[in-house]
Structure formats: C-alpha cells, structure tokens
Amino acid sequence: MASAPSVRRTSSGQLPSLREQSLVPVGMTTILPEAARQVRHLEAGLLAYCHRFGYDEIILPTFEYLDVLAPGLEPTLLENSYKIVDRTTGRILLLRPDVTAQIARSVAMGMVGANFPLRLSYRATVFRYEPEHAGRDREIFQVGAELIGADDVSADCEIIILLIECLRQVGLQSFKISLGHVGFFKGFLIHAGLSPEGQKRAEQAAARKDLPRLEEILSQERVTKRSAHRVLDVLELCGHGEVLSKGRALAKGDRLLVQALDRLANVYQVLCETGFQETILLDLGEFRGFDYYDGIVFDVFTDGIGVELGGGGRYDHLIGRFGRNLPSTGFALNVDRLFRGLTLSDRTKSVEPEVLVVAPFGLSTRLVSVAQQLRREGIRTVQRAVDPSGRDVVDAAVKAGLEANIGTIIVVGADRSKPDQVLVLHPGDRRGVEESSGRAHPRKRTVSIPGLIASLRSDIERTV
Asked: How large is the C-alpha radius of gyration of the chain?
C-alpha cells in the first residue's frame, strides 16, 4: 500500500488542505497566480540574460521515444523516468527526464544547424520519479543554457560566468559556485580498482557527499586502506588556490590526474583574474550526478537552501552517443529552488545591438575581460576564441563574424605589442572600403579598451 503523501506548502506558502493533498500527485506543484507571475518573471529574466550572451532559446518536446533518447540517459535515470505507450505506434514514450540529452539528440540529428559553436537556452519542465523520503520534487522547472562545439578555457569560463551573471541579474545576493573536474576524482576511483558496479555506486555517493556510504562501498569492494584514504582525502579538498597544490601532491605525477588539474587551474585562474574569485570555491571532489559529465563541473549553492540551486559542466562525449562527438558544456537551474532563495528584482534593462569579441587561443583572460565589460554596459556580446591557422587574426575574426551574422567585431590581440588596444571591425559596412587585389576590406579602427564603450555607443547613435 502506498504511503500517504507528505505535507507540502503551496507556492503561496500556505499548507494545502487534506483534500488538496489527495488531488495533487506527490512531488507535483500547483503554482497559484501571484507566484506564477513572479516565476514567469524570473524565467523571462534568466532567458533575457542568456540572450545577452548570444544564446537563442530552443523549445523541446515534452515526450520522446524511449529507444531514441535512451543512449543519452544513464540506466538509473531511465529507471526513474515516467513511461507510457504511444497509442498510434505502440512504441514506448518517455516523459522528458533531462533536457541536455534532448539537445544532444537534436544537435546530432542536424536539427539545430551545423554552424558551431551553438549557443542554446531553454526553459522546460522535467519529470523524474523520486522516493517521498528523498525530499525532492518529481516535476522540476528548469532554465538552462548549452554551449556546443567549443573546447577551450574561455568556453568553460563563459558558461560559468553566464550562470553567475544570471543569478546576479535576477537578484540573488549571496551564493557560491563549487568548481571541480570529474576526471580528477574518477581517476582515483579507477586506480582503487573498484568493479564497474562499485565505481558507479561510489560516484553516486560522492555526488551526494555521503562519506559514510562511500567508506562502506570502498570496504565492500576490498579497496586497500591506502587507496581508500586517498579517495576520501580528495572529497575533503575544498577551498581556494591552495587546494590545487594539495591535489597535485595526491596526484603524484599521474598524467591524467595532472591534466584534469591543469584544466581546472586554468579555468580558475581566468575566473579569478576577471573578478569572480569571491564567488568560486574549488572542490576536487565535485561530482555531478549524471554520467555524461567528463570534464569541468560545478554546482551553485546559497544560504537557506539545503540543496544545490543547479549546476552543470562539460560533456564532450554525450552528443557522440547519438552521432559524432562535439565538445560541449552547459548548466541548468532549478527555478523553484531559485525562487525560494531570492528576492526578485523588478528592474529591466534594454539590450543593445550585439557585438562579437574575438581573440586568438591563448588570450582567454583578455577575451573574457573585454566581453564582460561590454555585457555590464547592457550590450549583447558573444565571445569566441579562434585559431588563425596561419592566417591573420583579423581574417579569422571577419570569418567568425560572417558565420555568426554579427556586424560589429572586436578583435583582441590583433597587435600583441599593444595589449591595451582592440580593433573594431564592421565587415558589412562598405563605407570607405578599399579595393586591394580584387578584395574588399572591412571598415576598421583601433581604440583603447577604456574608450571602447564610448566608441560603440557613438556607432549605435549614428545607426539609429
């Protein structure tokens, strides 16, 4: 016999009556008008800020065919999904349990286009069975973003900064991003010699930060005390820059572990150098609960909410389960938890015409810094690291701008002897174009970084 539903407050904060409890399935939510208005305002604010970063909204189906989406879902998630039979075909339908897998399937099928990197945002509801005692909803409202086709430090930083700025934009005053790398902790589990099943159970315990359960699993798997201590030590490595040194000491020169730490260190450095040091907390035992994450991962926490508001990370091999591998990263926020954790702001900001900021690989800090200055001024800004591959960086920037259909391009590092200057290009503007060797050159000018905002505003005023 099923147990009685647990008592939950409605979104108005009032306790539901016994009759209401019996009419609403456990783990599902009725959002009353005033709360609904605020939730929609919150979702719209998050999506609008994603748009400012260059992310376009995608709307995905609520149902998927089980056999089509299954390659992107881990067995536990499949087991906890809601399934029905399609009356038309007799095939099993899946009530959407995860949006990232849906986007991976859509990209692999070529439905979103092939002009990479893709920047996609969404708001959606996902459905997962959770035991009543778990204290989690079965209907989860999400807003998220995915960056597909980019694999460099600036891409990792972009998605994390987007998450941070989204939270700030909607009024969350205090929060921390817990940042780690899946490969580091997983490497210690592999070295410990766990069975595939044991490793999976250990990963699940690590994702929940359940140290007693993890110790129990290591004991059941007959892991040596030395290896068990190393695994447990990793889970306790939380803090700031000093954590990386401790991690390197534990890694003992292991190539894969060092590679994971190097990537994490580079991302952390760029985030710190661009003003986010107080928001970031390094956690070498950070381990998301989805098995498709394989690189940088992160969760976001705030005071007063006992679970994460959301999180995400890199999943370079998920799309390959449906076709070819594409480096990707993204995040999802739990709207209900965020709604409970903040005081909504009614401020709205207009979005200016967009620009593309381009820099060669190796100038991630300067690329992120310039892009952030523009976004803070209300300008929709897309950033991109390029590999000139023997060409002039300006040519690579123009090509990137034409591919992205963005008319104003800011080139960082065009002249490396002048780090305080950038090049402003207008490839689509043929005023004053010079003809040389039968080729048209875009209108361009060099400006100082401090004078960049004023220069762009002058351009906007001339075009209005």
From this structure: 24
